[in-house]
Inverse folding.
């Protein structure tokens, strides 16, 4: 099964890892304005890698937000064209005190590389670059298929710029399929293709009561309390069984096919181990009557991420804050539509605002839910390539996360996406101590090499 | 009506104000550990004022928390002894960006002095010192009555050290009444004695779900969300009419006498003006069937002050936080007992914890509600002194706030408190742009001078 390109990748593993660490040292947190220049540095880092590999038309494309990085190599006449997608921005690292080693000082422990962005998505995006380098170096400056790369810096903040770029430039991105490595394997050593994503609507509801912060002794009992109001609203959004109470919310929800549900039942899953080792809560929650796979992949849900406002320091401050907010998101499943769900949400919230409170609602990060058909040669080649490298049959799963750009590829480029991910369930995405399992970094590079080679034949 | 002491006070107004500004420049925020040395500096400032006045036994008394400052003058044989109480600590100044001028740079505008602590309580506590200075300077080094002073630095964080000191040293604090200037006047130019205070229980409820922060895409639908859980709990604590739903919560609540309710009805109050000018909300809230005075003075209530945890930055972060908290306080009225209410609260909260969530609850700032009897010579002299200085009949009101030390004076020293306050309803206590109306600072000093003189005759 080996090939010169795979050999090249194996021989260069230490350098590939060292270069990934260089990228991880750049704190390219897209949501925090103070990291704007870091985000730009990360884009420049990617572009210089692309140039070194020998890709063409390397460009940092300025946008209203953070830049896109583009490159292509289109000389494999008669062969398919891949669009390699990834993102170089990362989530904020807080809470910092829960990291064993600092988030932007990549550290190896037990075959894992710990750093913010290690797996989401710098490490996985970097696999594409290193697979292309290996193919190019071992192939006399030629690739087995045509490639375009489009790497964004706003995935963690909604990806508006790439969405607009795809919408406005479909001809510049002409391709046969997209390759996305931003998902995870179902279990260690189990090659996995992701064929479904939940969509998302992220909102912030601001509640305003008094015009200024008031003393709760003087005014408590007469002045509206924005936190109490938000609590009353949130309690009416989701019941204690995890059922969302927004009228019409479930109207378009579809059920997976019985075949897909059957496949999920065959996956190696120990609910008690998942509860203890992954979640660590006293009990799992969610809708009764649905498996964990269904609850996290095929059922919509609603979460609250933070409630800014008021007094959050140590000790006691007796303030009735003038305003408070709740960051509330919903994950959507086929055939829910984010714009429609946002309207149902905001209409409902407006209808249950307690007395004395004014609210305003805004949204970002609207993403369509996605189902990928598995009956195409791209998915088949990916399945075979991963099986070859891992020595096990590849499984199809869905993910509960959202990758909005996959819907854009489908809608505007009319191409399917191959979601070949190498993360693991305990990689701590968006959390302290994010990591990437280093063997998966190497096997990911090899799988992509073989995937492209299989598509060429 | 004038006296040499009042004359002295009038002649020294500019210096008194300048010295108060010096005290206000010290950011003695008792709840924030980084201000510990500022709190100590404020204590030292008070002690040096006491020494300069000619008070005796001036002492900075170290405690487990912030120091107490004590002084006395006990040479008015046969005359009553006052215990002058005040506090030199202040609330945190945040949100800083809502202050017109910086909180620790005292600034005069429109006859008001703006600074954190201007009225609560540095400015009011300082009136006692300046009244004593005026009496001493104009009285050949003698005071008309005996005085002890006990000034604390933990009022804004629960006052545990002074409570312990009073409990353990009643003989050192022997007196006939306590004078407390930490309340407000009902209206500008309307002399007011406060004869009732609400009690308090301040709690923090921490909810824990998963063992680490989780990605809401991957785990949303299976992992418990601590914010949703807290919202569900809070929504079960208080209904939308302001009624508290904790079983047994109202069992000991007493109703004011019909005479007291009658007096409240006679107070100058325009509910619509109060709503617009003081609160500024679209509507007032609280229990139907009760006047605003009843709701804020004679009815218990519950407020949420902040909900630390999760993501509170700008933009979107899709985290299910491992933990979140709610700072929740209750204001109590006679005959509710804080320890009992805390137990009812925590038992009830524990009984409604949603699935998958662990909680822990802690409390501080337990304070008894207080009613002061008005049929004693101290209240009568105070009433007459204020009437003389303001030229209007003094009214009796209650306050919705809590001054726990007043209950300690009653319980351990067996003395009534005279709550002679000179704040105004729009002084922004605990909020940005706290102020003290400068004419009230001067009239307060004069009222206290006359009060002590009347008690001597």
């Amino acid at each position: 099964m080996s090939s010169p390109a795979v050999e090249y990748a194996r021989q260069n593993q230490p350098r590939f890892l060292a270069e990934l660490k260089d990228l991880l040292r750049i704190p390219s947190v897209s949501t925090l304005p103070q990291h704007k220049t870091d985000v730009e540095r990360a884009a420049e880092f990617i572009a210089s890698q692309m140039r070194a590999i020998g890709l063409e038309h390397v460009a940092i494309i300025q946008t209203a937000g953070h830049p896109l990085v583009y490159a292509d190599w289109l000389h494999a006449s008669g062969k398919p064209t891949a669009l390699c997608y990834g993102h170089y921005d990362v989530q904020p690292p807080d809470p910092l005190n829960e990291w064993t080693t600092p988030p932007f000082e990549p550290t190896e422990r037990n075959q894992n590389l710990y750093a913010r962005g290690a797996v989401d998505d710098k490490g996985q995006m970097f696999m594409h670059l290193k697979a292309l380098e290996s193919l190019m170096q071992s192939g006399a400056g030629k690739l087995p298929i045509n490639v375009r790369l489009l790497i964004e810096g706003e995935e963690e903040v909604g990806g508006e710029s790439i969405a607009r770029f795809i919408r406005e430039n479909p001809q510049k991105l002409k391709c046969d399929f997209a390759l996305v490595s931003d998902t995870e394997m179902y279990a260690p050593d189990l090659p996995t293709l992701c064929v479904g994503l939940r969509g998302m609507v992220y909102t912030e509801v601001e509640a305003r009561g008094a015009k200024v912060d008031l003393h709760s002794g003087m005014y408590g009992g007469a002045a509206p309390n924005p936190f109490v109001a938000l609590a009353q609203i949130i309690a009416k959004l989701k019941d204690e069984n995890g059922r969302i109470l927004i009228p019409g919310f479930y109207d378009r929800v579809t059920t997976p096919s019985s075949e897909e549900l059957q496949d999920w039942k065959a996956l190696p899953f120990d609910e008690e181990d998942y509860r203890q080792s992954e979640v660590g809560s006293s009990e799992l929650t969610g809708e009764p009557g649905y498996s964990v796979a269904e609850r996290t992949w095929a059922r919509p849900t609603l979460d609250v991420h933070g409630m800014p406002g008021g007094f959050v320091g140590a000790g006691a401050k007796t303030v009735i804050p003038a305003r408070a907010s709740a960051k509330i998101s919903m994950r959507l499943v086929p055939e829910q539509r984010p714009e429609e769900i946002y309207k149902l949400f905001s209409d409902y919230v407006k209808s249950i605002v307690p007395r004395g409170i004014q609210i305003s609602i805004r949204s970002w990060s609207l993403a369509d839910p996605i189902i990928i058909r598995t009956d195409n040669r791209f998915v088949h080649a990916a399945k075979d390539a991963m099986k070859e490298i891992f020595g096990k049959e590849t499984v199809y799963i869905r993910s509960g996360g959202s990758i909005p750009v996959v819907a854009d590829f489908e809608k505007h480029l009319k191409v399917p996406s191959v979601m070949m991910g190498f993360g693991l369930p305990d990689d701590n995405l968006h959390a302290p101590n994010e990591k990437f399992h280093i063997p998966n970094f190497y096997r990911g590079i090899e799988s992509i090499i073989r995937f492209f080679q299989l598509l060429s034949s």
